[in-house]
Amino acid sequence: MSDLRTELSTNLDEAAWEWLIPHVQRDAVIVVASDLDLLDVGVAIASDNISSVQQWIDQQLMVKPSNTQVGNWNSDRTKKFHTLILQPYVLVQEMAA
């Protein structure tokens, strides 16, 4: 598991909203609640930890971006996100302004 965590940590980055638009358009972005650790979520998904992932989905701690969120992000093109690429998905967390 630590090897997977180390491997995924190399995919952690920051991204501007404009860089994420193509991924939203292909329905590949998953918004992760700020109280979850992005790397923990990535490890759970990559290691098929279905119970944790399902719990986060049920609690709406992992969601597809809503039309309202996308609209807000489109109006603030300088918005930044913490990101984790986990093919075919891009996990994102909004960064504080």
CA-atom Rg in angstroms: 13 Å
Q: Cα distance, first to last residue?
A: 33 Å
Q: How many structural domains in the coordinates?
A: 1
Strand content: 15-25%
Give the overall average pLDDT. 94
**β-strand number:** 5
Can you tell me the overall shape?
A: globular
Query: What is the helix tally?
Result: 5
What fraction, in percent, of the residue positions are helical? Answer: 40-55%
Uncertain spans = none
Architecture overview:
The protein has 97 residues and is of the alpha+beta class. It has one domain. It is 45% helix and 25% strand. The chain is built from 5 helices and 5 strands, in the order αβαβααβαββ. It has helices spanning 2-9, 17-25, 38-46, 50-58, 67-75, and strands spanning 12-16, 29-32, 62-63, 80-86, 89-94. A 5-stranded mixed β-sheet has the order 1-4-5-2-3. A hairpin with a 2-residue loop joins strand 4 (80-86) and strand 5. Helix 1 packs across helix 3. The longest helix has 9 residues, at 17-25. It is globular and about 40 Å long. The N and C termini lie far apart (33 Å). The model has no long low-confidence stretch (mean pLDDT 94).
Question: Nutshell version of this structure?
Answer:
The chain is an alpha+beta fold. It has five helices and five strands.
Keywords:
single chain; 97 residues; alpha+beta; five-stranded mixed beta sheet; 5 helices
Present the secondary structure layout.
Layout: H1 2-9, E1 12-16, H2 17-25, E2 29-32, H3 38-46, H4 50-58, E3 62-63, H5 67-75, E4 80-86, E5 89-94
Parallel strand pairs: 2-5
Antiparallel strand pairs: 1-4, 2-3, 4-5
